[in-house]
Amino acid sequence: QVQLVESGGGLVQPGGSLRLSCEASGVIFAINAMGWYRQAPGKQRELVAVIPSGGSTNYADSVKGRFTISTDNAKNTVYLQMNSLKPEDTAVYYCYIRNAWANYWGQGTQVTVSS
Fold first, then answer.
1. Range 7-36 average pLDDT
2. How big is the CA angle at 72 (ends 8 and 58), to the nearest 5 degrees?
3. Full DSSP string of the chain
């Protein structure tokens, strides 16, 4: 069973930056999309950014211009560069990879933006 392993979360001051990484423990074939979701306390999980296979990148309006998603397809790895972080970005961030047969999810990594 392929697992997604996330890293890079932590505590950062407002205006700071973090880079999240998510690497698959094995090979995932026929990937349709790779992306990131987040869930803040008391709120529903929401899409942050996604790269569809062969399509254009999509971002939530709240992170446009501040977050950048990128992938290393050879390594089945997806990254999220987060700049100009705000307290409202505080959440557990989950990566996911989707192929023709399944959705794979990471275990989640906590990002806390606070002074």
1. 94
2. 80
3. ---EEEE--EEE-TT--EEEEEEESS---SEEEEEEEEE-TTS--EEEEEEETTS--EE-TTTTTTEEEEEEGGGTEEEEEE-S--GGG-EEEEEEEEESS-EEEB--EEEEE--
Give tens-digit pLDDT for 47-91: 999 999 887 899 999 999 999 999 987 888 999 999 999 999 999
User: C-alpha distances in angstroms, 59 versus 2, 31, 39?
Assistant: 26, 19, 15
As a whole-number percent, the residues of the chain with pLDDT over 90 amount to 84
Backbone angles phi, psi at 11, to 5 degrees: -100, 130
Return the residue matching tokens 């890293």: 7
